[in-house]
Amino acid sequence: MTFRTQVSLLTAPQKNSNARVKIFYSMVRSYYTDAAPKVDYYRRHMIEYTDQVKKDLNIICEAFEQFIDLVQVLRERIELGGMSDNDWSKFRHDLRGYLASVKGFSELIIEEYESMPNTLKLHLQMMLDGADNLLPVIAEMGSTSTLYETDLEVEETVEVALNNTLSGNILVVDDDEKKIETISRRLKQKGYSFFAAMSGADAFEMLKSKKIDLILLDILMPGMSGRDVLSRLKKAKETQDIPVLIISNVSDLASVTACIREGADDYLQFPFNLDLFYTRINACLDKKRLKDLEKTHYE
């Protein structure tokens, strides 16, 4: 079945869905009925791309296919009725995760591949615009409490992010390879030194041999969760002073508040505003630098 057919079938009107879900279906249909098949066509038929562009196009199309498959599951669950708060939370998290890959890798191709065909650029931008506009709608589906970043907050802090990149070793801890790659390439663009770990256990192994100045941590991971990692970091003398920035698809205010209470320094919902991302990284690195200076002074 083609992307065009999938989008048309999965986003048709549904009797049992509420207003927000109906808006969601309508927006998916509007943004992706044409754009997704075009991007998929370029992925399959253009041979002069670099290996990186081919890889990124594959990630976009695979993530979109997973997104559409999940929309199908959501429709079926809504038809059955009885969606709990936990059910909605899981759907919001996973839908955001797939769209974050679509958004992140569309942005990277547009920025890095200057000689792309205009038609591909146009439809990648449509994929990107669709993600930008769908993400806040997804955050409201079945939810009464959602954490937002305000435009005013971004405007007030953007100059710090753009003009003051600090040095330091950053450890990205997440079980999602695509999310790790998106974050890592953004760090690389600004010249940060970084490492990646796909589990809490891997992160603690890495901490034994490397000096880390900041940890970017996901909340939902199999095995040792982000909150478990955070708790262990803050209890150990060797790691308790390393700043932790939570970067997660989770939009649940209670989970975020719990992480801040347990010692996380800040939180960003993924996908993030890029300027705010750099600003908060610099703020955390600056905090670590000041703590290190204090230690040196008193030793």
What does this structure look like?
- The protein has 299 residues and is of the alpha/beta class.
- The protein folds into 2 domains: 3-140, Up-down Bundle (Butyryl-CoA Dehydrogenase, subunit A, domain 3), CATH 1.20.140; 151-298, Rossmann fold, CATH 3.40.50.
- It has helices at residues 3-10, 19-45, 51-80, 85-112, 118-140, 151-163, 177-189, 200-209, 226-235, 253-261, 274-298, and strands at residues 169-173, 193-197, 214-217, 244-248, 266-269.
- It has a 5-stranded parallel sheet, with helices on both faces.
- Strand 1, helix 7 and strand 2 (193-197) form a beta-alpha-beta unit.
- The longest helix is centred in the first third of the chain and has 30 residues, at 51-80.
- The chain is globular and about 60 Å long.
What's the topology here?
Elements: H1 3-10, H2 19-45, H3 51-80, H4 85-112, H5 118-140, H6 151-163, E1 169-173, H7 177-189, E2 193-197, H8 200-209, E3 214-217, H9 226-235, E4 244-248, H10 253-261, E5 266-269, H11 274-298
Parallel strand pairs: 1-2, 1-3, 3-4, 4-5
Helix pairs in contact: 1-2, 1-3, 2-3, 2-5, 3-4, 4-5, 4-7, 6-11
